[in-house]
Amino acid sequence: MRRNLLLIFLLTPVLTFAQNWGAKFEQLGTALPTPNEYRTGSGEPGPAYWQQKADYKIALTLNDDNQSVSGSETVTYTNNSPSTLKYIWVQLDQNVREQNNLGAQTSGFQQIPENTNELSTTRAASLAGNGFDGGFKLKSVTDVNGKALPYVVNNTMMKITLPTPLKTGQSFSFKTAWSYNINDRAQLGGRSGYEYFKDDGNYVYTIAQFFPRMAVYDDVNGWQNKQFLGSGEFALPFGDYEVSITVPSDHIVAATGTLQNPEKVLTKDELQRLEKAKKSFDAPVIITTQKEAEAKEKKKASTQSTWIYKAENVRDFAFASSRKFIWDAQAVKLANNTPLAMSYYPKEGNPLWEKESTKAVVNTLIAYSDMSIDYPYPKAISVHAASIGMEYPMICFNFGRPRPDGTYDDFITTRMVSVIVHEVGHNFFPMIVNSDERQWAWMDEGLNSFLEYQTMHRFYKHLPYNSNSPEAIVPYMKGSKDYMRPIMTNPEQALQLGPEAYSKPSAALVILRETVMGPELFDAAFKEYSERWAFKHPKPADFFRTMEDASAVDLDWFWKGWFYGTDNVEVEVSDVKWFKIKGEGKQIEKTVTAAPGTLGAEQNGENPFYGQPQEISLTDSRVRGEYRSDIPNEEIKTRLAGKNLYQVTFKNEGGLVTPLLIEWTYKDGTKELEKIPAEIWRYSEKEVSHIFSKDKEVASMIFDPNKALADVNVENNVFPRQNSKSAFDKAKEKGGN
Q: What is the mean pLDDT of the chain?
């Protein structure tokens, strides 16, 4: 089609933007995997989606005399994939504690302080070798008839060659026997281990990764046999568990699953209290009292008892055991389930734990169920263990201890409550929505930190909680890019794992919910993702695609900026011009604006925003092109009489495209908060200009007034600028906030 391009150019209004192109609004395209019959373009599981199953029958003994675990297991592995498997991979995560393991050989290179004179003894020991005899001691790997199976151990992975290839729909069972020494967490750290209490000579054991576990085999990666180096956590298939745990007979055992023999391991009083707790929805019921726990601390039984737990459709199993445990429980009424919220804690946790722990479990189950799926398991447990926050199905280990004299303050309470919310919340992500933690830490930590933020703001507004928000991520975002990596980075390569896997994705999701999508659209899409991928294995693309599919909001620009890059939000309000029709619309007044770094011509009695209004020019009738009608200039002038038109120029100094939140303060003292979508940057990613029509004259304006967008430099968010104090703070004070 032939056109008079010169005439069109001359007669078309000029768009006020600079041409700076970085493709920030282009689609992710090939950055995401091609949809297929297993995972669709909408983000939901495809018609041919499949996943493997691993069932366990485990018998183990916790040796309180020498702090070790010994056990045996039978694993039944079912191949639901379309592939025939000649071998299987098993995880041996305790091998991360072997001397000279791969993690130990590589983890210290970026962590030694520049001044080695300040190297602590414990840090030096961990880097130079601590002398601890860790790792699995494999006694046997056989089939169910006791015939040895060929296997090879490669650091934290074990490859078992199958006697015959395992075809689609077939199952294979094998047995292993093993033992290992339990680590002292106070000396060696770790997600699992024990704490020793020197005052009474007892231990609290929090035990996980204690058995050889099947690796994931899926449609995206095949075998997920990436080595466990310490930062990247776990990828596990679902299955059913039956676990027999033999401990000293005065121990209380908290574990994944449902206790099968309570009448053999609990006292009559404990049994009665447990039944009472199942009907108590208002407050916890103490099942094992502090007085009873303190009595056991002094006697130390010489006999043993075996606790038997069963769990269905879980991806892992963990337990805690101690004679020091106080135990309480409370029922939780959800829409479709009534689980028990439970807490186990030594006396060193009181009075804080008796007051707050189970209540935090209850609040978490309610809040997370509302935003994702109804909690499906029969219970959720919080176990008190010093200086740790770690999660497993139905059970987690949490810090937060009063001072030795039993006192505590809001800071201690906040840390304790928030870690309980976070770790109990992991029951949903990744224990149910079963993402690959070893590859994509943000898919569980980031989503969970976001829901932690929502829960804390719903139930604990009285506490000084300030984590996982856009404002809280600013110190990280304004740091050197030499020391940061995108969210879409494997946790073993992350330079600052806390922000990059936890708080930055959480802050991004807060912005996505509150500013980009709005709560209604976001909540529906997030719930859709949770329901689609409950008890399945989602990947990042499944989350990205579902959030768009369920909301009709194009979010590729958001994922690219926040998840694939290291840019930050840094928007400058660089210039403002004021246009206005004078009087009855008969005359147009024009003056030059004041410099943005000053208070304008305030001393001359002019508008303190930036002087007098500029001229609105008449539109040339030639812009009508072939149309025969005239431009109604006089009608437009009459319609705009009394209107204040403000042309504002915004500069994107940080590179991360963002919506605009603008607070207008008018001369009469009233305020207005206005939101502009991020798509304003689609023509220019560096600088844009927009005209705002206001009925009243403006006294000042602030970009991101409530620090909801993680802008890293609030000083240039204000117009007009202030020459003293903080420009942002002074503008807020003048506006009455």
A: 89
CATH code, 451-566: 1.10.390.10
- Report the C-alpha gap between 418 and 457 in whole angstroms: 11
CA-nearest of 153, 175, 159, 148 to 98 is 153
Least-confidence region, from 186-190, 623-627, 717-721: 623-627
The number of beta carbons lying within 10 Å of the beta carbon of residue 170 is 14
Q: Calculate mean pLDDT across residues 593-611.
A: 42
> Residue ranges of the alpha helices (H) in 460-604?
474-477, 497, 504-511, 519-533, 540-549, 556-558
The set of residues, in sequence order, having a beta carbon less than 8 Å from that of 633 and lying 6+ positions away, is: 618, 619
Q: Please enumerate in sequence order all residues whose Cβ is within 8 A of that of 50, keeping only pairs 6 or more positions apart, or say none.
A: 38, 80, 81, 82, 219
Structure tokens at 441: 């830490």
Query: Can you give the pTM of this predicted structure?
Result: 0.91
The confidence score (pLDDT) of residue 255 equals 98
698 and 664 in contact (C-beta within 8 Å)?
Answer: yes
Measured CA to CA, the distance from residue 317 to residue 391 in angstroms comes to 10
Give the range among 296-300, 581-585, 639-643 with minimum mean pLDDT: 581-585
CATH of segment(s) 50-196+204-236: 2.60.40
Query: What are the residue boundaries of the structural domains of the chain, listed by start?
Result: 10-18+569-735, 50-196+204-236, 238-434, 451-566
Q: How many CA atoms lie within 13 A of 554 on its CB side?
A: 11
Beta strand pairing status for 222-223 and 217-218? antiparallel
